[in-house]
Amino acid sequence: MSERVSFENDYNTGCHPRILAALTKTNAERTTGYGLDRYSDEARLLIKDACRAPNADVHFLVGGTQVNFIVAAGVLKPWQGVLSAETGHVNVHEAGAIEATGHKVLVVESQDGLLSADSIDQYCQSYHDDPTAEHMVQPGMIYLSQTTELGTVYHLKDLQAIRQVADRWGLTLFVDGARLASALAIEETKIDLPALAEIADVFSIGGTKCGALFGEAVVITKDSLKRDFRSLVKQRGGLLAKGRLLGVQFRELFRDRLYIEIGRHENDMAAALTEQFVARGFEFYAPPMSNQLFVLMDESDEKHFWERAVFERIGIQKDGRRICRFVTSFSTEKAEIDALFAQ
């Protein structure tokens, strides 16, 4: 093959053609900065309508790590930390961004990247029962991601149970939606945007990994978290002067259900990829559910596919098999999958 196909990640191409066209069309316009332009206003209204949450606050930031540490900084008191799965993005892939805000990531046991209500409850009960609790970091926020770092997804009953635990212990529930488009396209979860807005106190809607050039939307439903959030964003370097670039992109993503279409395409391509791997007898490190696949390969298989495609190896199991991540995106084409498995 003259050129390898790429399944490295879901942000290695520019953006969806509709978004590029919208940016080009509006390029010569002059608008107010910092997200106070009409495009950002329209995007906020479209997102609130999609969430059926007219009283929510919607803010636009540039990237996912930025969202996570700003939300943590706004939610937590100085002596509190964030509950996360050991595989959670805030724990393993953000270079200590949460800790840099003065808060600790509190690791909770998970299964395939998914936290359970019971595991969170047990952690909080253990903290409560410890006679030295006042000397320890207090749980203040639950961090979940939908999809998870391993491509798995929460179902409605899972989030409802976690919401009950959050209420029991007075915790804020935050859902990182960097790959939310893929999760929303999985109807079996019974989680749509209105359901998520009803359960979570704050959540993000990812654009970077879902067809945008860059950008994440933060949706805040809990009133006590809304006040002065823009000031916090400014202090933490997240208030983009050319904010309309975010507004234009999210307005396009939420017109005519483009966001859902992108998620469905990502998942359809991942399903086609899964089918091909299964037909050849490959197993998976985590069950394939969304647009991230974690394929177990021996050294020779990894070498074979590496000659054909770009992907990431995230680890090696004790039995020597490589854990290889393949990710589909809005730009993935069936021909690329065919090329990967061509004889």
Give me a quick take on this structure.
Helices cover 40% and strands 18% of the residues. The protein has 343 residues and is of the alpha/beta class.
Radius of gyration: 20 Å
Helix and strand sequence: EHHEHEHHEHEHEHHEEHHHEEHEEEH
Derived structural class? alpha/beta
Main sheet, how many strands, which sense, barrel?
A: 7 strands, mixed
Per DSSP E runs of 2 or more residues, the count of β-strands stands at 13
CATH superfamily caption of the largest domain: Type I PLP-dependent aspartate aminotransferase-like (Major domain)
Structure characterization notes:
The chain has 343 residues and is an alpha/beta fold. It folds into 2 domains: 5-12 and 261-341, Alpha-Beta Complex (Aspartate Aminotransferase, domain 1); 17-253, Aspartate Aminotransferase, domain 2 (3-Layer(aba) Sandwich). Helices cover 40% and strands 18% of the residues. It contains 14 helices and 13 strands. It has a 7-stranded mixed sheet, sandwiched between helices. A 4-stranded antiparallel sheet has the order 9-10-13-12. The protein has a two-stranded parallel sheet with strand order 1-11. Strand 9 (283-284) and strand 10 form a beta hairpin. Helix 1 (17-25) packs across helix 11, helix 2 (38-51) runs parallel beside helix 11 and helix 6 runs parallel beside helix 7 (156-169). The longest helix is centred in the C-terminal third of the chain and has 22 residues, at 258-279. The radius of gyration is 20 Å and the shape is globular. It starts with a strand and ends with a helix.
